[in-house]
Amino acid sequence: MPPTSSTSPATSQRTRVLSGIQPTSLSQHIGNYLGATKQWAELQDDHEVFFFLADLHALTVEAPEPAVLTQRSRQAVAQLLAAGVDPDRSAIFLQSHVPGHTQLSWVLECLTGYGEAGRMTQFKDKSARGERVSVGLLTYPILQAADILIYQAHQVPVGEDQRQHIELTRNLAQRFNARYGETFVVPDAYIPKASAKILDLQDPTAKMSKSLPDAGTLNLLDDPAVLTKKIKRAVTDTGSEIRFDPQTKPGVSNLLAILAAVSSTTIDTLVGQFDGQGYGALKVAVAEAVVAFAEPFATRVRETMADPAEIDRILARGAEQARPVAEATVADVYERVGFLPPLRT
Ligand code: TYM
């Protein structure tokens, strides 16, 4: 199904695409893949693409052990490669390797209202859950806006949960442009229709998330037996009919969405195929399809992780591609706001 976006993904050869993922765990879950990184791999053919690991963002909720964060960052790169993102066609880098993100973020923070930042639903949800609410959690969406605007990105492939952050990014771009003259491209969210919000298997009213209990989350690096068990225990709905109806049948509809996306078919086809069969048959099919995808994915991740120096080289190459673009935007922005340019001696 085509994603929702106000510009067609194929309108320009040079349309610039950017997105990021937080290295907050050792494994992407299937929501991250179907909502985001699968599209990243698809977009790299016809677009100029920048993909990064949002390691600065990964400090906002918990500050993991330093060695753990390092390991997660490398493993996140390995998973992007396993998802089909190709370092020869995409700039893959760490947010912390490009200082421009935080340099721009400061200027954007000063354009953002305190109340405006406080209204972000992810901030409200995460701060309601967390014991410790950092200032970084409040300013997180502004750093995200800087991540996007610094590359003058046209499209941002993300899941539904990021829509509000992209809206804020657009507002900040427009606000800056109105105050200081045309500077930023105003980006569009690029959100897949059917898999924009994969739901938790144990609570199909909530999105699948790293922060919910593990039983409801399909981690792509889970063992095949664990994936199968989680799918077989997925909460389904009353009745026995297999129908796509997210309102009254969120559990079954979620399984259909996962199966359709993983096996590159349509939900309509699946509904026809499962006509007259029960939830058990659907779960078997979902488990088989997910395992068939996850097993080779995990093998590719293991292979890549066997050579961490190569991962570091990929990141160095990506940062070299990203830095000049970021530096040019920061220089332009700093001049426009009136910072005295440093004299080079
Ligand atoms: P993060 O790391 O939480 O998630 C990475 C991507 O996965 C998508 N996603 C989902 N899609 C469908 N169903 C789900 N259940 C699901 N859960 C997560 C997210 O929408 C996201 O696209 N703030 C971002 C990272 C970020 C970023 C950026 C993204 C930092 N700077 C600039 C785009 C542009 C985040 O926390 O994603």
Give a verbal description of the structure:
- It is a single chain.
- The chain has helices spanning 30-43, 66-82, 100-109, 114-118, 121-129, 135-149, 163-180, 224-232, 250-262, 267-273, 279-305, 308-337, and strands at residues 16-21, 48-53, 90-94, 155-157, 188-190.
- The N and C termini lie far apart (56 Å).
- Strand 2 (48-53), helix 2 and strand 3 (90-94) form a beta-alpha-beta unit.
- With 345 residues, it is mainly alpha-helical.
- The strands form two sheets. The protein has a three-stranded parallel beta sheet with strand order 1-2-3.
- The structure holds tryptophanyl-5'AMP (TYM).
- Tryptophanyl-5'AMP binds at residues 19-22, 31-32, 35-36, 54, 57, 144, 147-148, 156, 158-159, 161-162, 196-198, 207-209.
For the record, give the distance between the C-alpha atoms at the N and C termini, rounded to a whole number. Answer: 56 Å
Distinct compounds present: tryptophanyl-5'AMP
Output the number of helix runs: 12
As laid out across the biggest beta sheet, the strand order is 1-2-3
Largest sheet: 3 strands, parallel
Query: Can you write the helix and strand succession as a string?
Result: EHEHEHHHHEHEHHHHH
Q: How would you state the average pLDDT, rounded? A: 94
Shape: globular
Radius of gyration: 21 Å
Secondary structural class:
mainly alpha
Q: Which parts are unreliable, with pLDDT below 50 for 5 consecutive residues or more?
A: 4-12
Level of helix content? 40-55%
Number of strands: 5
Strand content: 5-15%
